Amino acid sequence: MYRLNLKNNEATLAAGIGNSSTVDSATLVRVTNESGGSVVVGLQTAGFVGFATMTMLNNTTEVIEKRGSDLIHVLGGDVSVVKIGFTN
User: Fold this and answer.
1) Segment 22-53, tens digit of pLDDT
2) Which domain does 32 fall in, by range?
3) 65 and 71 in contact (C-beta within 8 Å)?
4) In a domain, 73, yes or no
């Protein structure tokens, strides 16, 4: 069994590719969508080359693994993000 270890305070990631963030250079990010609708979460390299997207339904939470330099952006609504880790 593991425990979730929060590494920083939760922050709002505003919709729009211009608001892309590394989330404090996180390699694990908890993303919570309480925007009232579905959103598309995208990952891109530090050079702004997109390589993955997923749709998140309203009132859902996902954990995304990424490289520390990779950026996360969201389209369709704001989400909450926080850098996390797992521990025993």
Assistant:
1) 999 999 999 999 999 999 999 999 988 889 99
2) 12-81
3) no
4) yes
